Amino acid sequence: GQIKTILFIGRLEKRKAVDNLLKAYEGLLKIDKNLQLVIIGDGPLRFELKNWAVAKNLTNVKFFGYVSEAEKIKWLNKADLFCSPAMYGESFGIVLLEAMATGLVTVAGNNEGYRSVLRGTGSISLVDSTNLDDFTNRLKLLLYNEEERAKWQQWAKVYVKQFDYAKITGQYIDVYKQALLKN
Question: What CA–CA distance (Å, rounded) separates 18 from 120?
Fold first, then answer.
């Protein structure tokens, strides 16, 4: 079958919990070999994470480091699931909005910043990435359950319209202001 792509974009540091994503991915590979995990971004944990993936023999994990904006957008449009498992310290999910603007179904860490974006139907995206069973099951649900995926995409399509962001990429200030006013 068609290979499914899980995408992470962000800095490879502890609070981003990419280690938890790799562990969950390991679990997913047991039920479906037709998967790839694309990791965009760099940071202090890059080699450690890469070595762990190699040691565990995880297939199709790709570390791309920094990529151009065009390349990033290509992956946002190509992927089946976006995952940002950050545990804390996320002020506001710009990258979530980017994923939502492209209709990319998302699983995200249940931190304050992401909770402020993923409301209503979108809250199904939120998960405690330190709870490996929950995390793996949520990835599974939002990767394979067509009904849930369609529901989420419908929600995101409407929700994202309130942010002018989609029209004026790069001008994040307004988005931040809106977010702060809403809280």
Answer: 26
Q: Within 10 Å of residue 125's Cβ, how many Cβ atoms?
A: 27
DSSP H or E run through 162 = none
Return the exposure string of 21-33: e unless at least 16 CB atoms fall within 10 Å of the residue's CB, then b: bbbbbbebbeeee
**Helix (H/G/I), strand (E/B), else coil: 84:** strand
The structure's pTM equals 0.88
pLDDT, tens only, 102-145: 999 999 999 988 998 898 999 999 999 999 999 999 999 999 99
Helices (H) and strands (E) in the chain, counts: 8, 6
**Contact indicator for 45, 118 with CB cutoff of 8 Å:** no
* Spatial distance between the Cα atoms of 60 and 67, rounded to a whole number of angstroms: 18
Q: Which residues in 21-68 belong to E strands, given as ranges?
A: 35-40, 61-65
DSSP 98-153: HHHHTT--EEEE--HHHHTTS-GGGGGGEE-TTSHHHHHHHHHHHHH-HHHHHHHH
Q: Give me 140's structure tokens.
A: 């599974």
